[in-house]
Amino acid sequence: MSDEFALIDSITTVLAETTAGADVIVGPGDDAAVLAMPPEHELVVSTDALIAGSHYPMHARADLIGYRSMAVATSDLAAMGAAPGWATVSLIVPTLSRDWAARFAAGIKRAALDFGLKVVGGNLARGPESVTVTVHGHVPRGQALRRSGAKAGDCVYVSGALGGAGLALANAGLATPSPSALSADSSLRRYWQPTPRLELGMGLRAVATAAIDVSDGLAADLEHVCKASAVCMDVELQRVPVFQGAVALQATGAGDDYELAFTAPTACEERLQALARRAGVPISRIGNVRAGASPRGRLVTWLNEGIVVQAPAGYRHF
Amino acid sequence: MSDEFALIDSITTVLAETTAGADVIVGPGDDAAVLAMPPEHELVVSTDALIAGSHYPMHARADLIGYRSMAVATSDLAAMGAAPGWATVSLIVPTLSRDWAARFAAGIKRAALDFGLKVVGGNLARGPESVTVTVHGHVPRGQALRRSGAKAGDCVYVSGALGGAGLALANAGLATPSPSALSADSSLRRYWQPTPRLELGMGLRAVATAAIDVSDGLAADLEHVCKASAVCMDVELQRVPVFQGAVALQATGAGDDYELAFTAPTACEERLQALARRAGVPISRIGNVRAGASPRGRLVTWLNEGIVVQAPAGYRHF
Predict the structure, then answer these.
(1) C-alpha distance from A239 to closest chain B C-alpha (Å)
(2) Measuring CA to CA, which of A51, A115, A310, B168 is 20 to 30 A from B303?
(3) Given CB atoms, is A74 within the 8 Å cutoff of chain B?
(4) Which of B4, B11, B24, B47 to mutate to test binding with chain A, by most A CBs within 10 Å of its CB?
(5) Which stretches in chain A have pLDDT values below 50?
(6) A89 DSSP 8-state letter
(7) pLDDT the model gives residue B185
(8) Could you tell me which residue, B62 or B311, shows the higher pLDDT?
(9) What pLDDT score does A314 carry?
(10) Which residues, at least 6 apart from B284, have a Cβ–Cβ distance to it below 8 Å?
């Protein structure tokens, strides 16, 4: 049994490299962090909890748990078009191990440096393992992307390829991949080290009418956009970009890929493709937005080569 | 088994009353909340997790769990001198019950209205019960209270009376008090419905040299201030205000009272007392700050009627 305060100190020391900068007035170690917002910007906040045995396998590699929990939360900033700012990390673990905590902190740190986030605070408590990350970013006033702006006539897009995380779930070595397994298998990397599409999201501020990150699965997430925007969509199954080795149902139903799905006016196609090249991630046009409710009572109508097919189900946590 | 999204909707509906206001640009229901910061202010952020069976009894009243989790987190804003802004609530529960969630949300809502916080987002997942609340506030630029400013010659103060929460822990009816038990027993209210000292904290911005909230126990929390400020303290045990019915060890060691402990120059006594009257909470001068390390190697030297006594131990979560 280690000392709680000493363990917090050791984690804070690992993460100190992420907190350098004039925007962190008070970092970890006080009652709260104090942060300088850029003027004329709005604050963007999202929180996500990952639970061992539910959102990732039990007894998984601590560094991967840390990295993935940061990536999942940060993806919500990308979906709002926000620039990354700061994160707090609340860790619950059944027993305190200095070694485990050091590896967890290393994963958090790597993600923070990869995504441009500063880890300014957190909480450590004993209990069944889970990680809750709250991320904070900022957007120029009035420019946040929402789910609610999709308009009839817009095109529906998705970034990257989908189904990689779903494919990884079928891998018996998911919990504790060796470094070489991780480097050899891109689906394992997609599951543990997804890339929040921050640059794409920021670029979409001026172009997209609605955006969401693909966390529950494309089918479910497009429904969220339809509900929020009071529209419906036709989506061509054969246009959905499928991660190498995955099948269509993993691409549309499995979730956890953390790509962005978004809508934009047809006229923006060229701008979008240029933006995608700059952001280093391909985008695919997969469908169209239509007004009102679908005649079949569906928010999203799935078509395969023009034929209506059954909706590929989304992932439910419960 | 209920539907996750429907349950989230029902909680969001209960909390909608808290989110009205021009500062909430995007509230719950999108990928993230978007919030307007007051100009020339700094953002203050803190996160706290409460775990069933560790930080509060198993099978406790859901509304009380909600209220207390908000109060505990908000107390950190008070300790920084911050004005309350927004909260996110991450709830993990083993089974989804609409009735339990409604009562939990009612407790969160009451706390939000009591403290002036808007609940702008959250997360719901299935697993062993815990609640993680992240609170956001703001302070005029450069005016946040820290733990690190205590100076030799300052006086040490604490607000309210301590030991009430420790006293409640000995109560067999702690988990599920009836409304009449809660109204009859002030120690139960102190445990479940502590009052973050927000007004006092904001008033202390211009006066206190250091501040902390009393969460780990007065003895441990004063040590945190000494470490951060590189000073030591003499504290008179008989001056510590003891909650009615509690004993001295509960007042100094038990924690969970969420009063403020702070240091201020001797010359500020009158200003402090006027401030305390306006904030509606008494303050007590309990000791003095001295330079450097104590000759006995202690950060805080406890005296009883002038005689050095053993340090009353702080609470450790592990």
Answers:
(1) 25
(2) B168
(3) no
(4) B47
(5) 1-2, 315-318
(6) E
(7) 96
(8) B62
(9) 52
(10) B157, B158, B159, B239, B240, B241
What is the pTM (predicted TM-score) of this model?
0.94
pLDDT digits (tens, 9 = 90+) for B60-73: 999 999 999 999 99
Determine which of A5, A45, A95 to mutate to test the interface with B (most B C-beta atoms within 10 Å). Answer: A45
Tokens of A198: 């921050």
For the record, the structure tokens of A156 come out as 């529906």
Pairing state of beta strands B210-213 and B283-291?
Answer: unpaired
Domain A155-309 class?
A: alpha beta
Smallest Cα distance from A79 to chain B, Å: 7
Q: How far is CA B280 from CA B84, B160, B197, B262, B283, in A?
A: 18, 10, 10, 17, 10
Residues 2-21 of B with CB under 8 A from A: 2-4
Q: What type of residue is B201?
A: G
Q: Are A128 and B126 a contacting pair at CB < 8 A?
A: no
CB-closest option in B37, B130, B144 to A26: B144
Model ipTM? 0.94
Q: Compare all CA atoms of chain B with the CA of A23 and give the residue at the minimum distance.
A: B42
B74-106 residue pLDDT tens:
999 999 999 999 999 999 999 989 999 999 999
Is CATH 3.30.1330.10 the right assignment for the domain spanning A4-140? yes
Chain B residue at shortest CA distance from A85: B43
Residue B149 predicted with pLDDT over 90: yes
A121–B46 C-beta distance less than 8 A: yes
Please provide the size of chain A in residues: 318
Is the Cβ pair A53, B144 closer than 8 Å? Answer: no
* Nearest CA-CA distance, residue A185 and chain B, Å: 29
Domain borders along chain B are 4-140, 155-309
Q: Is B144's pLDDT higher than 80?
A: yes
Element (H, E) at B234: strand B231-236
Neighbours of A40 (CB within 10 A): 10
Cβ neighbors of A129 (< 8 A, separation 6 or more) are: A51, A52, A53, A58, A92, A93, A94
How much is the pLDDT for B1? 38
Q: How far apart are CA B119 and CA B123, in angstroms?
A: 12
Amino acid identity, residue B304? N
